[in-house]
Amino acid sequence: MFITASLIFAVYACTSAAVVHYPPNASATNNLTFALTGTGAPGIYTSSDTPNEEYGMYNWCNMPHVRPREYKSLGREYTLEYVEVIQRHHKRTPYASNTFFKESVSWSCDGEGPMYGVRTQRGRGSEITQVQWQASTNPVNPWTSAVGPGFVGSSCQFPQITREGLEGAITHGQDLRQVYAFRLGLSSRFDPTKVQIRVTNNVITSQVASGLIRGLFPFTTNAAALIQPSTFDSLEPAYSCPKASSLKADYTTGANGQAWQEHLELAKPVYAQLDRVSGVELGDGAGWHVSFDHYYDNMSAKQCHGKSLPCNVNVTSKCVSQDLANTVYRLGNWEYSYLYRDAPNSASYAALRYGAWVLELKGHLQAKVNGSSQMKYIAHDGSIALLLGFLQVADMDWPGMGSEIVFELYSKDNQSHYYIRVLWGGQPMKTSTPMGVLDMVPLDTLVAYVDEMIGTGSDLYTGCNAP
């Protein structure tokens, strides 16, 4: 491993793993002064459409992904052997925890609820009636008014993928099909011997998968999605890792959290303006003032669906301005850059918190090389920020709706050499590591990086439970 003399880095050692933190580029995103006092939104927040000539720019509502128009094919000396895609869900309602006690706008999901049921392979249970959820409330239930109406009379689950989000997932699948189907020899029907789809225990990932599979395999009406137990799911991730939690706590609320605590102190005037609209108390216990996550999700979900920014339900002239919303969006992106890239121990945190999934990826790649796997394509819905932190992307933003990282495995010289291309937003990922741009990096180089960051599965387990 080569480290320049001028590089400031942090090393966290765990058994055979030694994590080196390579800081991200300095930019407007991780400049706290600009986040607080700058102007404009850090991308598109009011539309899922990005003009072709600007495709690739940050669009929170619908992030750029692999599609035929921008995809760069390689020369005939390279053969595409395997593709693994991990993506974030598409547009949705906000989470219930991110809604105000009473919202000033309406949100209807009539006829658009999530589908539930059970199906067997044979017998009467093989042909079942699909059940669609539609949220409802009853004023006779005394707890209805205790938790707040939120979006009054809404038929939505919070969260759920919306109609626009489902259509975005279908388009995403169609774009992936146009790029990879003929290159990998995929049929128009889902074939579990060559393709796997994996979701987390969060139901919105399955909602997105239903659209993605429809676009990727248009003649498929039923497909099995893999899901790990909720107690140790590596994709979400849900496995226990006390050391990762303590590392993150240390650089946010702990002894090394000065930068995080400073940004919250400087942002108090921003919170004060928001609280006057939402009615949230300064000392709330629901997490509204420990980061901008709640306000960011609340407002961005509305704007992505063409809804107005919130107003105070009692003083309707008191509303969140676009300038204030833009400040929240800039601060949210600053927070993600700090949490997953700028904090010196962020790489160690990502290695522990997402190491299990990365080891699975490594296993998939090696199985393809040694011939023990016939898989051509695996798709996920997962935690993009942690993976970006692990790969130490050069410029970190809050991954928006439909964010996607693609791992392409290529062979050359009759499978005597293997290379990896990693696409972020449809283009080769730029990292701060000695690997640089992940564009046809020898597979052994990426594997060595994984081994340095994580070690073995045993190393990871021991590291997670270290004091």
TrEMBL record:
**Pfam families linked to this entry:** His_Phos_2
Keywords assigned: Signal
Position of the signal peptide: 1-17
GO molecular-function term, one example from the UniProt record: phosphatase activity
Q: Which Gene3D superfamilies match?
A: Phosphoglycerate mutase-like (3.40.50.1240)
InterPro entries linked = His_Pase_clade-2, His_PPase_superfam, Histidine_acid_phosphatase
The record's listing under SUPFAM superfamilies reads: Phosphoglycerate mutase-like
Q: Which domain of life is it from?
A: Eukaryota
Family named by the database record: Belongs to the histidine acid phosphatase family.
The protein's name is Acid phosphatase
Q: What's the source species for this entry?
A: Laccaria amethystina LaAM-08-1
